[in-house]
Design goal:
412 residues, alpha+beta, Ribosomal Protein S5, domain 2, Alpha-Beta Plaits, 2 domains, 4-stranded antiparallel beta sheet, 4-stranded mixed beta sheet, 19% strand, steroid biosynthesis, EC 4.1.1.33
Length: 412
């Protein structure tokens, strides 16, 4: 699993996926930034747990790498002791789980196929792997850390092995680690098509639009809790599949309609429709969780105060300028367009004085929306920090790595 370990401080360096190749030959380096994503249309439920095949398609926005990152270095050498290893956020992490092993096994098989077809290639597939990874956002608290971690791991090892696979081909591998990970291999606006093949060969990521298509999309993340959630996503979704009466309606009717509406809104750069579908799908998802037996509650009073704040901001603006969404956790992601930053962000800076994470440009922003004292008090008492970000690109090259020439983690 990729969700244990000490957390580095927030915010930190840019989101990055970094790969380093170490072997008995001179070191070769290939380094990347890797982003995280945030749902607009949620994946919740599996039709095949072993292959991580979803019960519905989903869609997300890739967030800017200057604000959220997973940094991963993969290395290999004939001099390493036998056995693969993973260090996550400074602590050894278990890699014996079926999902992690599935990723390692598939990537090794692809490298072995290259070596079999070209005898001049170094024999890397049989060598032990050392992987070191860091997040700069909370794991297991509804910020898609497991997905970002598996995407980073797959991309790092794929580049270590110099695989020719395209991002959509690698998404088939990343999906086996974490279903949502397949979307983190792309930038911009990304769908995960559920597919229908029993072997999962058509269940992969699909680029809906590049970040450059709608570049002024922004997001304000209210970090309500960095604590590990009480019910994990994997456990929660299976409980929902088994017990929720609303679940079948969601996957058969609600999600297909929302996918069509969302993709059209993105193509048209229609923020009002984007916002409506985003909020409706978030509501639908959490209603289905509440309908699970026993019920699952990922949001809390601070989350609900954030919803009321968005409603107040839109009412004051006289149009839809902000949209809330929540993954499987209490942290609010609030979308807005760059032109409306003063209206949206200014409403929160007014009540979150002293809370860290606001960028310098947010200082002095004035909003026509004034949040009432009750909402202001709940938010002030419950938001630990904020992250200002926006739509961003997929993995890009970096210069930093986490493993030294001796194969040991670099002290930072």
């Amino acid at each position: 699993m990729l969700h244990h370990g000490r957390q580095p401080s927030l915010p930190g360096p840019a989101p990055q996926l970094l790969l380093t190749l170490r072997s008995s030959s001179p070191a070769r380096l290939s380094k990347f930034f890797s982003p995280r994503t945030c749902y607009q249309i949620r994946y919740w439920g599996k039709r095949d747990a072993k292959l991580n095949l979803p019960t519905n398609s989903s869609l997300s926005v890739t967030l800017a790498q200057s604000d959220l990152r997973t940094l991963t270095t993969a290395s290999t050498s004939a001099s390493y002791p036998e056995g693969d290893s993973l260090i996550l956020n400074g602590e050894p992490s278990d890699i014996t789980g079926a999902r992690t092993q599935a990723c390692f096994r598939e990537l090794r098989a692809r490298r072995a196929a290259l070596e079999a077809s070209d005898s001049s290639l170094p024999k890397l597939a049989a060598l032990p792997l050392r992987v070191v990874s860091e997040n700069n956002f909370p794991t297991a608290a509804g910020l898609a850390s497991s997905a970002a971690g598996f995407a980073a791991l797959v991309r790092a090892i794929a580049d270590l092995y110099q695989l020719p696979d395209t991002p959509d081909q690698l998404s088939l591998v990343a999906r086996q680690g974490s279903g949502s990970a397949c979307r983190s291999l792309f930038g911009g606006y990304v769908a995960w098509r559920m597919g229908s093949a029993a072997d999962g060969s058509d269940s992969k990521a699909d680029l809906v639009a590049e970040a450059s298509h709608w570049p002024d999309m922004r997001a304000l993340i209210l970090v309500v809790s960095a604590a590990k959630k009480g019910v994990s996503s994997s456990s929660g979704m299976q409980q929902t599949v088994a017990t929720s009466g609303l679940f079948q309606q969601r996957i058969q009717t609600v999600v297909p309609a929302n996918m069509d509406l969302m993709e059209q809104a993105i193509r048209d750069r229609d923020f009002a429709k984007f916002a409506e579908v985003t909020m409706r799908d978030s509501n639908s998802f959490h209603s289905t969780c509440a309908d699970t037996y026993p019920p699952i509650f990922y949001m809390n009073d601070v989350s609900r105060a954030a919803i009321r704040a968005v409603e107040a901001i839109n009412a004051a603006a006289g149009r839809t300028v902000a949209a809330y969404t929540f993954d499987a956790g209490p942290n609010a992601v609030i979308y807005y367009q760059e032109a409306d930053e003063a209206t949206v962000v200014g409403a929160f800076t007014a009540v979150l004085d002293g809370v860290g994470g606001f960028k310098e440009r947010a200082q002095g922003l004035k909003s026509e929306a004034k949040l009432d004292e009750v909402l202001a008090g709940i938010l002030k008492g419950g938001v630990s920090r904020v992250i200002m970000t926006g739509v961003g690109e997929g993995p890009i090259k970096s210069d930093e790595y986490l493993v030294g020439e001796d194969g040991e983690p670099v002290k930072r």
